[in-house]
Amino acid sequence: MLQFITHPSENMTILEEIENVVAGGCKWVQLRMKDADKEEIKAVARKAKEICKKNDVILVIDDYADIAKELELDGVHLGKKDMPVDEARKLLGEEFIIGATANSFEDIEALRHTDIDYIGLGPFRFTSTKKNLSPVIGIEGYAEIMRRKAESSINIPIVAIGGICYDDINDIMDTGINGIAVSGSLINAENMTEETKRMISLLESIIDKRLNF
Prior knowledge:
Its EC number is 2.5.1.3. Pathway: Cofactor biosynthesis; thiamine diphosphate biosynthesis; thiamine phosphate from 4-amino-2-methyl-5-diphosphomethylpyrimidine and 4-methyl-5-(2-phosphoethyl)-thiazole: step 1/1. This is Thiamine-phosphate synthase. Pfam families: TMP-TENI. Its cofactor is Mg(2+). By secondary structure, this protein is α/β, with parallel strands linked by helices. The protein is 43% helix and 16% strand.
């Protein structure tokens, strides 16, 4: 699974970013507009929803469960300082996707009894798209966290995030991670659509090997 997270860029608008990754086959977009006001976010979200719905793409919004409900998006991703998961689930109901951020195994353990659909675990390495960055995890950190997660019988899907590029994917997926979330490595690619296709092709081959092992 490849998740794309939007980020403001001098090269293109956020909607152009979404169009590019969708053209490359990406089926999951997280609309992230940290420094924008709510009306601007809603205006972009409405247009993003049109693009995603037409292409059968999941669209979740970062932070704003109320916008997800108002605009009938697919769900919300909640950071550690955002609305509590239980409160978001009460607001949204069972039909919406809720993802949550974790930076450690202890964070995952704290989330295990909440009603979430996936966890974004990071950062893998330093990334300029995230302010107030938590300590980087790296390959060894992911391997250790996934080992402890298996030992604890925690079954929540885990998506790696934070400065990930194509050459990292094999090593990260080898730790048992369920998917990859990317932003800068696609936005800054020479051809965003082609790089999306390349990443998805690699991820699909890795998942196929897992299923046929």
